[in-house]
Amino acid sequence: MFLLLSLFQQQAEEEEEEETLSSGVSEMLSEPEELEGPNKVEESDMGSGASAEDKELAKRSKELEKKLQEDGDKEAKTVKLLLLGAGESGKSTIVKQMKIIHQDGYTEEECLEFKAIIYSNILQSILSIVRAMSTLGIDFADSGRGDDQRQLYSLADSIEEGTMPPELVTCIKKLWVDGGVQASFDRAAEYQLNDSAAYYLNQLDRITAPSYLPNEQDVLRSRVKTTGIIETKFSVKDLNFRMFDVGGQRSERKKWIHCFEGVTCIIFCGALSAYDMVLVEDDEMNRMHESLHLFNSICNHKFFAATSIILFLNKKDLFEEKIKKVHLSICFPDYDETRASSELHHSAEQNQKKPTVIQESILLHRR
Q: Which residue stretches, if any, does this entry annotate as coiled coil (predicted)?
């Protein structure tokens, strides 16, 4: 578009120079001397030459104007969304939901592609839970599960990634129902574990059946670390959306700068359930604190001074379950439950089922 503008401006300047030159020549020839012989120029020839040039310039001008208008219309109908947030805050899940809602969902072939990812998630989850037991000082409720643990480690090293042979399924089932394994799972905030662990492990029979085809919920809960920048395009009515999902881990954030220019809106994702968890890349940093720090830096970044920001508070269902067992003071020591409950009740009455604008250009959305 900038090239077209430059061409259009250059052409206008050329036309202005030609007009000035033409005016000067007209004055000089206002009382022309009569020319004879070969030096005489026919007026009809001069006139037709100038007319053809004017027509060509007019044609070029119209073509440039049309192209400029088309590009402007296309740009005006394009909305560029940038998904930001700390690692495992639910950004990729939003991208999947946009595909389901606005791109006719996932085909059967696409769902089958997630099968290996889901099997890998299951294996990594049970391995994380069992390995954490020694660190947490937890023993198996059934001493016989020690053999299953050794078999699990052996199979994990030998099977093809993304597969789930029957002997592995049997081993995982025995371990998952053990009281010691469940005790380790209850303390998942003390180590790294996928949010979808219980969802998959509680449905092993369905998920490991020979005819298994992942459904939309299975796909949404699957976890693959986002590296680099992933673009998703979709349309809503007459608007074209370009959504960019970038990795949330600290090592991935340096790549965000390439997405800053021309952003229409930022969707910042924060996981409500992360208040008692630490980062994968830094086991001393609370995830909620990291998310708050990152959100503050984005809100005050020079690139986003005039950019609208939508705050998505994700994983509400996990938060509702966790808050029954883990007090919020683990993240916010000054938290006063009695006072907060009163303020929350008042806020709910004032803003029931309505989004909350917490700054002029920031929209809060809970999900």
A: none
Query: Could you give the CA distance from residue 236 to residue 244 in angstroms, rounded to a whole number?
Result: 17
pLDDT tens digits, one per residue of 118-173: 999 999 999 999 999 999 999 999 988 999 999 999 999 999 988 999 999 999 99
For 178-201, the pLDDT digits (tens) are 999 999 999 998 999 999 999 999
CA–CA separation, 64 and 79 (whole Å): 25
Question: For the chain, how big is the Rg over CA atoms in Å?
Answer: 33
What amino acid positions are annotated as catalytic residues? 88, 93, 223, 245, 249
Domain 78-106+226-348: which CATH number of 3.30.457.10, 3.40.50.300, 3.40.1790.10, 3.40.640.10:
3.40.50.300
pLDDT band at 78 (very low <50, low <70, confident <90, very high): confident
Q: Which amino acid is at 33?
A: E
Binding residues for Mg(2+): 92, 226
Half-sphere exposure of 229 (CA within 13 A, CB side): 16
Whether the per-residue pLDDT at 260 is higher than 70: the answer is no
Question: Which parts are annotated binding residues?
Answer: 88-93, 195-196, 220-226, 245-249, 314-317
Q: Show the tokens assigned to 237.
A: 């009515």
**Sign of the alpha-carbon torsion through 115, 117, 120, 125:** negative
Domain ranges in the chain are 78-106+226-348, 108-221
